[in-house]
């Protein structure tokens, strides 16, 4: 639970908002019933139930975007309802609700829901009698919406930038190991759902240490960047490319069965050998290939591809070993 809260920003926000709603609205719901205002009490109770159900849905399905829209719609409808059946005190709830809308949802959704909420409340003659009161409400609610809009947009932009930095290797521009773990999980789920094959190549630059030792670290870095460029030029846009260690890379190939894996591995290996060199010394790679087997875990799959790659190294380097099943013997693919 702690791990999900830490890794899923949207889920954490939904959970926090649901907890704050429970703490903030429950005393009012009780008070409404005690004061003989059952209708308003029922609205408060409905808000609490809907928010709880929305948060539970987000936890169960992981569909946080849908849950966030549901939460924002519930808050807004609740506010409009209270403004029409209670007095001015109901209107005051719209301010935190507007802020929550913008923090929970994307720009278009939050603008739409907030505008509808402001208009819905402004139409209430019970809570806002007279034109000047209505105008003052619309003006203040619009200003709060604009502040929230600006703040939420900036915060979202910075969060996306930070996420991109955290998942990318700055030298080659490829995704890093953390990025790979996320992408592997997504691709495995999609493959299981669609029945489409999924392939993985793990490769390592041969004798890379000697490049560093003979020509310096900068020359080694240039080789890493060159290899990454060649891989990108020889794979499709929906293939995923990762730098998983110093001179170790992986390519995740959606839709690639055994034959396609063999073909892509051969193409990459030959392209690196042909196009990458360091001060005239050719650069080669050793590749381990493994198709995803339904039912196996990401770590077992990775271990199989890794094992095949080490086998390629031991067999003399600059070659591909394909490991089709969970157990060796491996199959040469070159
Ligand atoms: N230039 C550079 N070198 C790196 C980087 N990350 C790791 N290395 C170096 O990569 C080298 C890897 O060496 P080894 O693991 O011995 O492998 P190798 O020399 O490629 O030998 P084989 O893999 O067996 O073919 C080490 O010298 C690391 O210091 C990096 O970002 N830049």
TrEMBL record:
Keyword hit for Cell membrane: no
Pfam families xref list: GGDEF
Protein name in the entry: diguanylate cyclase
Keyword terms, alphabetized: Membrane, Nucleotidyltransferase, Transferase, Transmembrane, Transmembrane helix
Residues annotated as transmembrane: 12-30, 42-59, 65-86, 98-123, 135-152
Keyword Repeat: no
Domain GGDEF: 196-325
Catalytically driven reaction(s): 2 GTP = 3',3'-c-di-GMP + 2 diphosphate
PROSITE patterns xrefs: GGDEF
Enzyme Commission designation: 2.7.7.65
